Amino acid sequence: MTETALDVESTTSRTPVLSARDIVKHFPVHGGGILRRRIGDVHAVCGVSFDLYPNETLGLVGESGCGKSTTARVVLNLQPATAGEVSFEGQNLNSLGGKEMRRLRRSMQIVFQDPYASLDPRIPVNEIIAEPLRIHGLYENGGKERVRELLATVGLRPEHGNRFPHEFSGGQRQRIGVARALALEPKVLVLDEPVSALDVSIQAGVLNLLQDLQAELGLSYLFVSHDLSVVRHVADRIAVMYLGRIVEIAPAEQLFERPAHPYTQALISAIPVPDPRKERTRQRIVITGDVPSPANPPSGCRFRTRCPKFANELSEGERKLCVDEVPELVDRGQGHPSACHYAESAQLL
Amino acid sequence: MTPTDPTATTGDTVLEVEDLTVQFPTDEGLVQAVRGVSYELRRGEVLGIVGESGSGKSVTSLAVMGLLPKTARVSGSVRFNGRELLESGDKELSRVRGRGISMVFQDPMTSLNPVYTIGDQIAETLLVHNDITKQAARKQAVELLETVHIPNPEQRAKAYPHELSGGMRQRVVIAIAMANQPDVIIADEPTTALDVTVQAQILEALRTAQNETGAAMILITHDLGVIAGQADRVMVMYAGKPVEKGTADEVFYTPRMPYTLGLLGSLPRLDVKTDRLTPIAGAPPSVINMPPGCPFSPRCPLAEDICDQEEPSLEPGSNPEHLAACHFSYRVEGHAPADLFRQAADDPLPTGATEGEVRE
């Protein structure tokens, strides 16, 4: 991950391993009557596009309800998109039949947030890791040895493979989840809040493991998290989401050094750092209120109801644009794309 | 904010906890949740208690409030304004709870009653402890909602908890906690269930509550960032015991206990780009049938024979108020996390030497 700066520069010339174009995902909301008629939609994801390049980590961050996990699921075709297109190495997932999709799943795997809920408690760890191999008909041919190898790869003792999930600690379980995801030698791993359920001293070990695996196996990560500190540490590029849309996307260092979108700025300034002197002198952009309901998002810019810039700096005339027009995700002179009509770089750290 | 706060008269202790232990008998053995916690809380200060899950940080405060189940065995001493609380009956404790010491819990959905309006719930706290009319209580409730920055307090007072967002609910809980001008507010992971932008708002509301009432605060959290920004003094807990105590600056900049240093090294930071974290090997010990010696020694890079035989007590260093429980604290001072925990960090691929080690 040290070569990131170079990589990001050259990404334009490389072909993405995974591409998402204008993904939209709506969930129906039903009424309470006998007919349970559809009375509206929750707009979970609205026109999200991104590319994931080989051997790269793309961080997808945002607060609860911003659509980051839904995006991850749609990308893997675990949930069908309402509209939009996902392609893996140029192959459009929407056009694939069940059989072809299954074959493609070998290349795209997921690690879930909760290591307590994502492992079947009645199956020994060996079998949990062997399951994907069996499903894809790969177990007969040296599967047993492969499982031992996988356990060692994630830092567990192969001889403990006949134990059950409850005999392992949280961090170890998450390692088991990673081993299972690696079993089919995927190219892309979707990590959905992989360390959020772990204590910090344990979290660090899992993050290091993920870094090592990426370097060793050349994996691409879509790293979904609410924790900007973790994402800064692991990601090469970061996309910030708010209410179903990407509001800013940039190389990790650039995003922290000169965030352009008021939401990104507020987010960065709201996160406490473990440094008392810095904390005491830090400038805080406190945004008021809560995230609006995705069933009835604001018109125009979705952040405008909480935007400090909208409230304090813009004139009546300028505000009209925020209300009427959805800001596009384009570079407005800050060196990377942001979705704010009045984007302006700020230095916060 | 600082110990020189005008409301803080130095040496004026409101809460004094001495050698507090809490044990729970279970089928598998005696769970030693808290194994000897002592601290003093001075008027107007913020004491941050930090630790990972199972370190006993929450149980400590529940014991102080007398809120543990009857099966818990509690010993030691808790003195609030000089009065012993552990020997007090339930009736006496009820007079202290909410008036002398109040609490803000992690999950505002479960700490509010879903079938009463929030206005009624705030008024209830006032009516229980004061001889005032219902009308006066209701009026005061609205004022309190305004203090914690709830918009349209007049109308919101008539709302039920489910009609409010998580952040708003936590503000209501804070309003209840400050209603009777307590001397101590205990906030137990008050922002853990909330998003960061809302967390910033709640921390500000807590600060307001503290300034308005002049209360001292105990802030319990696993988040070192929150502690750094809020606490005057910090107590780090591990396996049911405080392992380091000092001012926020001392604990963060010159830690004397390997565990504290390890925690700081494990933390990915927003403000600094780190290439590699230095995790602490292993996992916290089971608090059932604890072995003798320092509970951190199996994970500690400095551990020697004495660490497995004798549990170190909290001892001062060059600064008499900066305490650490480590036989080799002098070897921790002045080191970066990577110096001490290098071994684990340099492992090319963790091969069972790190956290991957299965607990035996």
From TrEMBL, chain A:
Keyword Iron assigned: no
InterPro entries tied to this protein: AAA+_ATPase (IPR003593), ABC_transp_ATP-bind (IPR050319), ABC_transporter-like_ATP-bd (IPR003439), ABC_transporter-like_CS (IPR017871), Oligopep_ABC_C (IPR013563), P-loop_NTPase (IPR027417)
Key word Transport present: yes
Family: Belongs to the ABC transporter superfamily.
Recorded superkingdom: Bacteria
Pfam families, per the entry: ABC_tran, oligo_HPY
Keywords associated with the record: ATP-binding, Nucleotide-binding, Transport
The name this protein goes by in its record: ATP-binding cassette domain-containing protein
GO MF annotation list: ATP binding
Ranges of residues in domain ABC transporter: 18-268
From TrEMBL, chain B:
Pfam families noted in UniProt: ABC_tran, oligo_HPY
Principal location listed in the UniProt entry: membrane
Record-annotated ABC transporter domain positions: 15-264
Matching InterPro entries: AAA+_ATPase, ABC_Ni/Peptide_Import, ABC_transporter-like_ATP-bd, ABC_transporter-like_CS, Oligopep_ABC_C, P-loop_NTPase
Record bears the keyword Lipid metabolism: no
SMART domains linked to this entry: AAA
Keywords from the named record: ATP-binding, Cell membrane, Membrane, Nucleotide-binding, Transport
Location(s) in or outside the cell: Cell membrane
Membrane topology: Peripheral membrane protein
One example GO MF annotation: ATP binding
Protein family according to the UniProt entry: Belongs to the ABC transporter superfamily.
PANTHER family the UniProt entry points to: DIPEPTIDE TRANSPORT ATP-BINDING PROTEIN DPPD, OLIGOPEPTIDE TRANSPORT ATP-BINDING PROTEIN APPD
Entry protein name: ABC transporter ATP-binding protein
Gene source species: Prauserella endophytica
